[in-house]
Amino acid sequence: MGDTTIEVIVIDDHRVVGLGVTAAFENRGVDASISWAPTVRDAKRLRGQVAILDLRLADGSDPDRNIADLNGRAIPVVVYTSGDDPYLVRRAIAGGALSIIRKSAPPEDLVEAVLAAADGATFPTPDWAAALDADEDFVADHLSDLEARILTHYASGASSACVARTLSVSKNTVNTYIARIRDRYREAGRHADSRVDLFRRAAEDGLVSYFE
Fold first, then answer.
1. Residues 6 or more apart whose Cβ sits within 8 Å of residue 137
2. Count of beta carbons in the 10 Å neighbourhood of residue 2
3. Number of C-alpha atoms within 13 angstroms, CB side, residue 195?
4. 94: β partners
5. Left if phi > 0, otherwise alpha if psi is -120 to 50, otherwise beta: which for 170?
6. How many other C-beta atoms lie within 10 A of the C-beta of residue 133?
7. 116-119 long-range contacts, Cβ below 8 Å, gap at least 24?
8. Could you tell me the strand order of the sheet in which 77-81 lies?
9. What are the strands, taking DSSP E only, across 85-190?
10. How far apart are CA 8 and CA 100, in angstroms?
11. What ranges make up the beta strands (E) of the chain?
12. What is the pLDDT of residues 31-56, one digit of tens each?
């Protein structure tokens, strides 16, 4: 980047993250203009060469769509995340994020990832490699067609009885399958104890939409 100031948009629920990013660039002696927004929608009014994006935002927006939105504006994305959901990390990689940096990583890693992204390059990390190695289609690999349909209706808010009527199965079958689906998500390290958890898992797997 030479002596040119790099413009960075930090998109995170917490403004303090933006302050931390500013300090990281200052400590590395990199001239950067750092702006902050709580959502991708709020970031539309900001100029930036690179976006630093948290995968989970308070508006419940879909990470894939957020990355696509930013890439559509020719803004490459560096994901900055706690890394507590490996599936979302894999989705971010598939969606076009150039780098994945954990918030527990050294601040220098984030700076290097942003500088690489500004040049259209990735900054590979062990988390990136592990996410690619573990990549899978959860629905195709773990759920039958009927289980996927039951999950779609149930996660969208339908009662067990309503799902049973819609799919012409018994209410007991629906409840049994929902319990089985929860177990399979847990075995994959993805929480599914509540209906809200199931909605999030179904949204992450493309069965329902965050925007419906």
1. none
2. 4
3. 10
4. none
5. beta
6. 8
7. 117/50, 117/76, 117/77, 117/78, 118/1, 118/6, 118/49, 118/50, 118/76, 119/1
8. 32-37, 6-11, 50-53, 77-81, 99-102
9. 99-102
10. 16
11. 6-11, 32-37, 50-53, 77-81, 99-102
12. 999 999 999 999 999 999 999 999 88
Residues 88 and 204 sit within 8 Å (Cβ to Cβ): yes
Q: How many CA atoms lie within 13 A of 12 on its CB side?
A: 25
Gap between the Cα atoms of 80 and 13, Å rounded: 12
Distance CA 68, CA 28 (A): 30
For residue 81, the cross-strand partners are 102
Cα–Cα–Cα angle for 80, 84, 89, rounded to 5 degrees: 55
Residue 209 is predicted with a pLDDT of 66
Give the pLDDT band (50/70/90) at residue 84: low
Give backbone dihedrals phi and psi of 63, rounded to 5 degrees, phi first.
-55, -40
Cβ proximity of 6 and 78 under 8 Å: no
